[in-house]
Amino acid sequence: MASDKKDNVGYHLVDFLSDPEGMTETELDEELDKMNVEVYSLVNRVKSMVNQALEDDRLAWQEAAQANWTAALNRLQGIKSKLLNLPRAKLVEQFEEIKNAAGPKLSVAFREVDPEKMDDDDIRDIIVNLIHLENLESDIDLNH
Amino acid sequence: MIIETKAKEAASEIITELKIKHPSEIRVELIAQHLGATVSYAPLRSAAGRLVRSGKRAIITIPDDVFNEGRRRFSIGHELGHFILHEDIIDYVMCSIQDMMDWRGNRKMETEANYFSGELLMPFDFFFPRCVRKEANMKLIKELAGDFRTSLTATAVRYIHVTKEPCALIYCVDGKIEWFIKNQADFKYLIKNRGQDVDKESLAYESFQSNENFEGGFSVPASAWIESDHLFNEDLKFIESTCCLPSLNATLTLLWEN
């Protein structure tokens, strides 16, 4: 019964607040009073709900970033696992291939990079990075 | 000055846009990811950080054997600085520890990346209120480094950049002066040059001998740190506060006028 009354008040309140035009402040107070609404407590409750919603929303980007980061690391790991058993000569060859196939900007950036001066882990890691970035570029192209 | 302004503004904008309100919310890996750069840890032996970029995306690689959280976070902030500030210039960069300590513009882009990282990890609006009306010494720097999860060196540099007190920060390695910076509030004395031996009258010297910290402020003769040609008052004293960094065989000294 109490719940019915509450729901009823809520219904009337929403209905009423959606069109309070033409009423004076006193009339508004009287109408709300008739509906057993404690205005100040209602206002405070709405304010606190709005603040909580804003606070929850404030750092929502972190949740999305965390999920994207985990997904990206898994993809990097996936690429890396396929290169783990490649001998050095093959790694160098693949690095040169990717470097030459990359756009002119990246080719210039890697001009000074000499794989002969790098250890296997470093070469493998750069290849993984480049393949991953290339895949991302392809995804972007496909999505557009 | 232009170098630091551009970098600081860029970092500050990010903090504002991401609605960060507290140091604990500065999760630098997530900020990087949000901006398009994935942070990856790998056995990177030849550098302290690396950036590979393609278009709007990048991978930041940090050596997986850096266990100091502060150093790791600063390196990520530094590479992110290259990603944000040097979009049309840098697609591939390997940065050394020396690059991440270049605060004097020897290599302009490295200094910019350092200022960016400093502002990102220790935003002025959060950092400055924690410094005011507090005694300047290494105890305070350690406290701030804990609050912001930053390295002692990066925190001390940030302190020098924001404090209104005239003071200097001196970094010594293997018993010799490696670099120093003075703050904007006009610390007017000329500190001894890079490469000079740490003076026996300084606490830093004592710290090298004993691996002890002297975190509170202690009075030392100014001649311990100032070129004698520039010392016009032989009785002048400084207050010195020094921390030793045993893993780097280094000391970090905060110096201010008595």
Please name the defining characteristics of this protein.
heterodimer; A: 144 residues; mainly alpha; 2 domains; 79% helix; 0% strand; rod-shaped; B: 258 residues; alpha+beta; Arc Repressor Mutant, subunit A; Beta-Lactamase; 4-stranded mixed β-sheet; 9 strands; 36% helix
Secondary-structure map:
The complex is a heterodimer of chains A (144) and B (258).
Chain A: H1 2-17, H2 25-34, H3 39-58, H4 60-83, H5 88-101, H6 104-109, H7 120-143
Chain B: H1 2-17, H2 28-35, E1 37-42, E2 49-54, E3 57-63, H3 69-85, E4 92-95, H4 108-121, H5 124-131, H6 138-148, H7 152-162, E5 167-173, E6 176-182, H8 203-210, E7 214-221, E8 237-245, E9 250-257
Parallel strand pairs in B: 1-3
Antiparallel strand pairs in B: 2-3, 2-4, 5-6, 5-9, 7-8, 8-9
Structural write-up:
The complex is a heterodimer of chains A (144) and B (258). Chain A has seven helices and no strands. With 144 residues, chain A is mainly alpha-helical. Chain A has two domains: 2-60, no CATH class; 61-134, no CATH class. Chain B has two domains: 2-121, Arc Repressor Mutant, subunit A, CATH 1.10.10; 165-257, Beta-Lactamase (2-Layer Sandwich). Chain B contains eight helices and nine strands. In chain B, strands 6-5-9-8-7 form a five-stranded antiparallel sheet. Chain B has a four-stranded mixed sheet with strand order 1-3-2-4. In chain B, helix 3 (69-85) crosses helix 4 (108-121) and helix 6 packs across helix 7.
